[in-house]
Amino acid sequence: MSASFDATEASRRGVEMRRARAEFKKALRDGEHRLVEVFDSAEVPDTDAVVRGLRVEWFLRSIPGFGVTKTQRVLDRVGVSPTATLGGLRVRQRAALRVEVQALYRRYFPHQRGVLVVLAGPSGVGKGTIVSWITSHYPDFVLSVSATTRPQRPGEREGEHYYFVSPRQFQALIDDGDLLEWAVVHQEHFYGTPRAPVEALLDEGKNVILEIDVQGAKQVKKAMKSSLSVFVSPPSFDVLAERLAGRGTESEAERDRRLATARRELRRQHEFDAIVINETVEEAGQSIVDLVLASQRAQAPKE
Ligand code: 5GP
């Protein structure tokens, strides 16, 4: 009696599991889950059995346009059998497959990733205030923290405003390819964007803002075509000079150097995807957010 009860119960659970798996595969195909996140979650033992029990083959084939042949090629490259499940991968297989999954995610689901927003504009134009406005009103926007050889100013915190490094440490970052871009700004100090944190945040779907100089902005646009470059312009050059003087954080010589850089930068503003004039922080911030959301929509696959 109890044996037949168990069999019924087991078969009922089997049906439920198959249904849940089918639903999950459909959600995956419809792009409701991020590929990389699903892959990573399968490593955690208490993740849903549906995810852990999903065959790697089906997982890969849930990518729209990714058929049998492409799937087999990936499996061959990483040495994983088609019947292996996401939760049952060995450490080495998992590491090799993760690299593939990440590349597939970036290639096939660009609209699920965040947008890289490059914000440039002359010193004193108000980029920092605009960024603070955006990040406090839109939690999906984050500011990337740069590395610099410039001395720390009073009130600046390591890892929050910058990573303050020595010229030798900066050179090591360049040599190891750890920077997405770098430049000597105001003919004096080195500034650069660490690559890994930016990529990880974009994978999570965050829109990452780089507040960098014009030379760096050009490098990023060249390396990442899908990025959005925005030049923040002052209402006039005089307004800029006044703002910089009012800030009082630089010596007179430094201020003059910054104004000279500003003149050069303003001449190049037409090279950007968009120009936003900083009349008020709210308007400028909202314009940038709207540009980012439009750029993300443009990357979504056509119905
Ligand atoms: P500050 O010394 O006032 O903090 O920054 C000076 C300038 O350096 C800013 O105008 C900013 O645009 C630029 N900057 C800051 N971080 C980076 C970076 O990572 N890369 C580049 N290329 N420029 C940066």
Describe the overall structure.
The chain is α/β, with parallel strands linked by helices. 52% of the residues lie in helices and 14% in strands. It is built from 13 helices and nine strands. The strands form two sheets. Strands 2-7-1-8-9 form a five-stranded parallel beta sheet, with helices on both faces. A four-stranded mixed beta sheet has the order 4-3-6-5. Helix 2 packs antiparallel against helix 6 and helix 7 (127-137) packs across helix 13. The radius of gyration is 25 Å and the shape is elongated. The N and C termini lie far apart (54 Å). Bound molecules: guanosine-5'-monophosphate. Residues 123, 146, 150, 181, 183, 185, 191-193, 211-213, 215-216 line the site of guanosine-5'-monophosphate (5GP). The site of guanosine-5'-monophosphate has 14 residues, from strand 5, strand 6 and helix 10.
Q: Top keywords for this entry?
A:
alpha/beta; five-stranded parallel sheet; binds guanosine-5'-monophosphate; 303 residues; four-stranded mixed sheet; 13 helices
